[in-house]
Amino acid sequence: MVSHAVASGTPDGPRTAGAETRAARTGQELVAELGTSRTAGSWIDAEGRPVVAVTDERAAADVRDAGAVAKVVRHTMRDLRSATGVLKAAPRVAGTSWALDYAANQVVVRADSTVSAAEWARLTEVAEGIGASVRMERTKGTFTPRLNGADALFAGSGRCSAGFNVTNGRENFILTAGHCGPVGTTWFSDQQGNRQVGDTVSGSFPGGDFSLVRYGPGTALSGADVVAVGGGRGVRITGAADPAVGQQVFRSGSTTGLRSGRVTGLNATVNYPQGTVTGLIETTVCAEPGDSGGPMFADGLALGVTSGGSGDCTSGGTTFFQPVTRALDSLGVKLASDPAAAGRAAPPSDGTDGTDDGAAVPPGTSATAPGGAVPPGAMGPADTVPEGRTDRASSALERLGDYRNLGPGLFVVAGSLLALVALRIRSERGRRRYRSQYSQSWG
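Structure (tokenized):
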């Protein structure tokens, strides 16, 4: 389903969000039709065209007939998956990752600054045994979950951003990252722990990185299908999808606000210090502690929730996302995109300043364009300034980072998707333990 939640053009000119979504879908459908023995993935090239890696000329002709670009490659998808299987079977090395680089027809293996020379040598030996389908790279920084960020939603285990509102038809939940808190974690919208939002009731970490926070009784999800992007603007989420390599994507988080980048790899595996997570999306979108669990989206489609990575939003880095489609399937829920089916009780206020100027815009309000589109000039995903620029984005991003500007609906749902909620370490002792563990990870 293609969304119309974007009102104006991207900084890439002809590479509009809608065009990229269509290109991604075309490539994915061709790969599914031709099969893993004749293809090795798809991506979007510099001109925004779908490209499919194929292993024979007949498959290449089929791709061209469908209006896509064909590239004949050496390694099939089966070859690439076999390579990842060998890497997975090797002794685990914390601080490493690997992902499928379809454009290069390789599995790229990365090691962060914590991986010793001896560990790197052992991993290189494994890669050499696999052959030319594997490429080795060192990366700066440290692969860690993006925990501990801004003030918004609090729990004893840390701080995170909420991703998307979801439902099983009977109860309503927040979909966020699994590493944010184990089952039983209670989440609050204030530092004092007086206003409870809900409890973590299921999830996966390590292995996957997703969890459900069940809302308390009497919580409505009016406007639950809107992602806040700052400045009182929002983008309506109309469905879920899997991204393509090369696609531009956007992420909202409670620490660094709205950021953009491109997908660089799929089916990524990351060996965090806490355990191994598989099946992730690898991107160039920056993230920092506190952005964990926040939504990644493009063209009105939910794509992922922030898992972790290396670097920051000053120097850049690599960030990984849990695919939304896999999380929804595993948890047996769907996006709460139909407000009429989500309950009718009025949400409680967070009591900060009595305004709603920083929340995501609910459907039907004056700040939302017809059809749920972000109004022209809004800080939306089709209108983001190029990476590294802050002139147009600065005020909106500053608002995202200040919980006092977020209205009552943002914390518990009225008119928003809780894209910016976060957990907080409540005891000074817990804060010191956390800082001791992660302080060396953030440059």
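The longest strand covers residues 257-272. Residues 1-14, 146-152, 338-380, 382-443 have pLDDT under 50 and may be disordered.
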